[in-house]
Amino acid sequence: MTGWDYQELLVFMAVAEALSFRGAAHRLGSTPSVISRAIGRLETRLGVRLLNRTTRSVSLTAAGAQLFARLPGLVAAMDSAVDEIVAISDTPRGVVRLNLPRVAAELILAPVLARFAAAFPAITLDLTVDDDLSDIVAQGQDAGIRIGGRVAQDMAAVRLTPDVRVAVVGSPDYFRSRAVPGHPRDLLNHVCLNYRWRPSRAVARWRFEDDGRPLEIAIEDRLTVNDTGVLCGAVLAGMGIAALPDLLVAPLIASGRLVRVLERFCPPQPGFFLYYPLNGHPSVAVRAFIDFVRAAPSGS
C-alpha cells in the first residue's frame, strides 16, 4: 500500500464517520472539493463505488459499509505500531524544509520560531522565503505555507489563520493631494503599484466585489515588483496605492502610517494554510512542526 492509498483511506474514513464531505473537510483541515477528488481516486483504484452522493446527503454503499467496518481497527493498529517506533527516540529529530511567502514568514512563523526551537532542539528548520508559487515537491521541500486559494489540489492542507482580505492602501501624504477613491473604478485616476509573480511574469490582478458581483480593474502602474516588502515600502514613501494582505499592513493602518480605502469592495479570501503532499506520509519531524504551528495562536 502506498502513502497515497493510506491518505485516501483516511479521507474515506472521515467522510464515512461524518457522512458529509464538508464535515470531513473541516475535520481534516481541507476543502470539500479536495475531499471529493480523493474519494473519486480511491473508488477508481478499487473499481467500486463506496459512497452514494446526492446534493443533500452522503451515504455508504454496501461495499463502503464493509470497508468502513474494518478500517478504524486497522488504522488504530497501524498508528499504534508507528507510535511504538517513534517512542524509541526521545524526541523528534531531522530537517524540516519549508517554503513560505514573506508575509507568512514575518507574521506567522517568526513569532513562534524560538519556542519551536526550544521545544524541539533536535529538529533543524530549513526555510525558503519565496513569494512565488513554487513547486515544493520539485524543490525537495517537505511543506509550504500559502493562501488557501493557491494551494495545489494534490496537497493536504492545514488551516493556520482565519480568512484574510486584500487591503488597498496609500500613505496620508499621497492622499493629501489626491481624492480618496470611493469606487474601484476611481483607481484609474490614481498612481497604482503592482505585484508581479516571478515565474509567469504575470501581474497580480486587482479583484473586487460590487454588490456581490466580481469586478476586475486593469491598472496602469508606476512600479511593478515581486517583493511585498519593497511594495509596502513604496506605499509608505508616498509613491502610490497598492493592494497588500491585510495581515501585513494592519499595524501600519492602526498607527496611521497607511490609509485603507475601498474596504467594502474587498471580499474575504481563504486564509493561510500549511500544506504538504497528499500522496506522502510526513516524517515525525514534519508532523511535529505541523502540530506545533497549528496549535500556536495566529500572530502569537
Tell me what you see in this structure:
By secondary structure, this protein is α/β, with parallel strands linked by helices. The chain folds into three domains: 3-88, Winged helix-like DNA-binding domain superfamily/Winged helix DNA-binding domain (Arc Repressor Mutant, subunit A); 94-147 and 275-295, 3-Layer(aba) Sandwich (D-Maltodextrin-Binding Protein, domain 2), CATH 3.40.190.10; 166-265, D-Maltodextrin-Binding Protein, domain 2. It is 39% helix and 23% strand. The chain contains ten helices and 14 strands. It has helices spanning 3-18, 21-28, 32-46, 62-88, 102-109, 113-119, 172-176, 228-236, 246-254, 284-295, and strands at 51-53, 58-60, 94-100, 123-129, 143-147, 155-159, 166-170, 192-195, 206-210, 213-217, 221-225, 241-245, 259-261, 272-277. The strands form four sheets. Strands 4-3-5-14-6 form a five-stranded mixed sheet. The chain has a five-stranded mixed sheet with strand order 11-8-12-7-13. It is globular.
Outline the fold blueprint.
Blueprint: H1 3-18, H2 21-28, H3 32-46, E1 51-53, E2 58-60, H4 62-88, E3 94-100, H5 102-109, H6 113-119, E4 123-129, E5 143-147, E6 155-159, E7 166-170, H7 172-176, E8 192-195, E9 206-210, E10 213-217, E11 221-225, H8 228-236, E12 241-245, H9 246-254, E13 259-261, E14 272-277, H10 284-295
Parallel strand pairs: 3-4, 3-5, 8-11, 8-12
Antiparallel strand pairs: 1-2, 5-14, 6-14, 7-12, 7-13, 9-10
